[in-house]
Amino acid sequence: MTAYRRAVKAIVPTASCFGGGRSGWRFFSLVSMAESPENPTPLLVPKKKKKKSKKIKIDPLTPPPPPSEFPEWAYEPRDFFKFEIVYQSKKSRARVGRIHTPHGIVETPGFVSVATNGALKAVDHRAGDATDCQLMFCNSYHLLIQPGPAVIEKAGGLHKFINRDRPLITDSGGFQVFSLSGADAADEMNMKSLAKRHHSKSMLKVTEEGASFQSYKDGKKILLTPELSVQSQKAYGADIIVPLDELLPANVDDRRLLHSVYLTHRWEARSLQEHLKDIRQQAMFCVIHGGMNFDLRKLSVEYLTSLPFDGCAVGGSLGKDRKELIELLHFTMPLIPREKPVHLLGIADLESLEGAVPTGVDTFDSCYPTRMARHGHLLTRQGRLKMPKRKYDMDYGPIDDECTCFTCQNHTRAYINHLLKAKEPVAGTLCTIHNLQFMNDRMKKFRQDILDGHI
Amino acid sequence: MCSGYGSVFALVSGSGSGSGSGSASLLSTTEEGVKFRSYFDGSEITLTPESSVRAQKKLASDIIVPLDELPAYHVSKQRLKESVYLSHRWEARSLLEHLANPQQQAMYAVIHGGVDRDLRKLSVEYLSQLPFDGFAVGGSLGKDRKEMANLLEFVMPLLPEDKPNHILGIADMESVESTVAFGCDTFDSAYPTRLARHGSLFTTEGVIHIKLTRFKDDHRPIDPKCPTIPYTRAYLHHLMRQKEPLFLTLASMHNMAFMNNLMATIREKILNNEI
Q1: Are B56 and B85 in contact (CB under 8 A)?
Q2: d(CA B5, CA B48)
Q3: Which of A123, A344, B239, B267 makes an SS bond possible with B247, Cβ 3.0 to 4.6 Å?
């Protein structure tokens, strides 16, 4: 409630003089502020009763549109987007590849850094690119709320707005809408910190049409439909875009999961159709769902890969621990056609990478390496180290002897330790630069290991 | 490199700087030096002219500053005079400690006297006799920019012409522009970077408050007439609205680049006899 309404509420007289005999509180919700042009002071007027829209009951198992409903030309390869397999391992399903996009090449297996609001946290794009960042992720949800697609479109697209001429990928907005809605989903996705920041009950409703929620900026209701999601992603102009999908927490019963997968498929089909109306040199990756139900995963892969998507992302609940994740990937990855690039959503910790790269995943995104950097957890070739700690007070070596990042080339552990202790903002910048370089170097090593026949 | 007392006093009196994490408490000022409490762990720290110089020796900066006392703006003339005399004794002790081991460092004297012209003259006359490498103008410079400009107009000509001078803690655009003609060489201040972090960006047309809605859709560079960083006003507005840490970095970079450009322009103008 805004301060204004609170103030007015304090002076609104109780029910009797308005008639109706309801308690002041509930009655107040029936009146609204209205300004008339002659008198700028808001008046209390009775709210007009909203007509309840007829809810059309849809069978939750309504099948999504079959491949035949998509135009034939959509199945032709695109000239602006290509996935090139440089080398397929003979030992596993791992492969070294190159994704060609209008804004440059993405070497795979590759790490995708997360620039939530069109900016890496505390790191300028020029510094980020210097650490070999290639594909970068921006979150539609936050950009939709602030500054909004119109501003970005007017700037000439996201690349021009943030001034970065390398490949970008945007998501549909679905992830944050769903994960910020309730405690279960929030905890599972480890987004606790975000949930505290924003309205944790900002999600209102999911219907066939889309997901409606409240903007955390001004409380306005927004209905995120597949069409709206794609239209905003068109305005952003990222090289790779993602259709709207529904995201459930891990522990749901199979029936709910089944309904959700069907709904997601219908949404993704609508997103794809919206996308095909005006391709604009963008590639769309489908999102494979099904939770930990292998039959549903199979169904999801079979349906989605029959549609003219440019690549696949593995989404939804990925198991309760790493073991389940890898089992899931071992089952799902072989079902996906080899020539499509595959992206794993939200996972990029070192141990998971080691298990997932041999299954054939091409790109991984996660805010984990950059978030931990800001909290002083640094990744090195000798293991993880946590700062600030007294033992680093006089340690004048670089964070990692073999690292070529700006931080390691120019600063010592003692200095970083001091900056973190003194809570200097530049500590976050320097640590993030280091962890980004480390992740990109790690992926480079994966690529080399595959080429050398070790993976 | 300041002597340390200045920032201690500033933390105590809240005259602008202060690092935010609690206030240092000034415990005592004696002939020997000053005692205060660390804001970090609460321990008592004694700062004497000798200990201040010794610390600056360890830091090995290029220019160091002697310990001086910083009285407030509103003090009696008697108190001010006592303070100036104390500062002189402290600065002399600092200089002696420095000269015992110069270590390739230069030491600037700090001219005091508040807004009292006689005391300022006295301070300059005494300190310029000693073998300092340069002169910093410290202490209170007046209650507003006009007073400061008048004071500097009086003080600067008294300083030796062949030594560099420095104005402590003043570096906002208007002050710089109005005082550089009096012969000031360098200025320091947290002002440009602090203002940047709070959203006030410098341009040749004045200061813009980037958080305002009018910049939401403004896709021009921050200062069209003075190129600094390759980002638009709309982007910086967006970053500030979303409380992105990158905003602090970029805004500070812009204001710093702007200040450096400003000083370069001033140097050009002096060379062309325009100032």
Answers
A1: no
A2: 9
A3: B239
| Residue A77 DSSP class | P
Asked if B246 lies within 8 A of A425 by C-beta distance, the reply is: no
3-state secondary structure of B33: coil
CB contact under 8 A, B234 and A146: no
State how beta strands A104-108 and A95-101 pair: antiparallel
Give the chain A residue whose CA is nearest to the CA of B197.
A425
The dihedrals phi and psi of B109, each to the nearest 5 degrees, come to -75, 160
**DSSP-assigned letters across all residues of A230-285:** HHHHHHHT-SEE--------S---HHHHHHHHHHHHHHHHHHHHHHHT--TT-EEE
| Rounded Cα distance, B138 and B168, in Å | 6
The reply to whether A171 belongs to the active site is yes
CA distance linking residue A350 with residue A438, whole number of Å? 11
b/e map A172-208, b = 16+ CB within 10 Å = bbbbbbbbbbeeebbebbebeebbeebebebbeebee
Question: How far apart (Å, rounded) are the C-alpha atoms in residues A391 and A407?
Answer: 19
Residues of chain A with pLDDT under 50: 13-36, 182-200
Instruction: Give the count of Cβ contacts less than 8 A between chain A and B.
Output: 63
| The predicted structure's pLDDT at residue A229 | 95
To which residue do tokens 């530049």 refer?
A426
Mutate to test the interface with A, among B218, B235, B237, B239 (most CBs of A within 10 A): B235
**Structure confidence at residue B42 (pLDDT):** 84
**Cα dihedral sign for A134, A139, A143, A149?**
positive
Instruction: List % helix, strand, coil for chain B (3-state, nearest 5).
Output: 45, 15, 40
Distance (Å, rounded) from C-alpha A342 to C-alpha B130?
74
ipTM for this model: 0.80
Phi-psi region of B30 (alpha: psi -120 to 50; beta: other; left: phi over 0): beta
Answer yes or no: are the C-beta atoms of A334 and A307 closer than 8 Å: no
CA dist A362 and A98 (Å) reads 9
Question: Which SS3 state, helix, strand or coil, does residue B167 take?
Answer: strand
CB count within 10 Å of CB A257 equals: 19
DSSP structural state of residue B223: S
| Rounded distance between C-alpha atoms, residue B8 and residue B23, angstroms | 9
Cα A430 vs. chain centroid, distance in angstroms?
24
Backbone angles phi, psi at B99, to 5 degrees: -70, -20
Q: How far is CA B138 from CA A50, B70, B134, in A?
A: 69, 8, 13
pLDDT < 50: residue spans in chain B: 1-2, 5-23
Query: B149-180: string of b/e by CB count within 10 Å (b at 16+)?
Result: bebbeebbeebeeeebbbbbbbbbeebbeebb
- Per the CB < 8 A criterion, the answer to whether B68 and B110 are in contact is yes
Residues 6 or more apart from A260 whose CB is under 8 A from it? A246, A248, A252, A289
Instruction: Using the structure block, give the residue that is written with the tokens 């640094």.
Output: A378
SS3 B26: strand
Chain B CB within 8 Å of residue A428 CB: yes
Q: Which two tokens stand for residue A365?
A: 């995104």
Catalytic annotation present for A395 = no
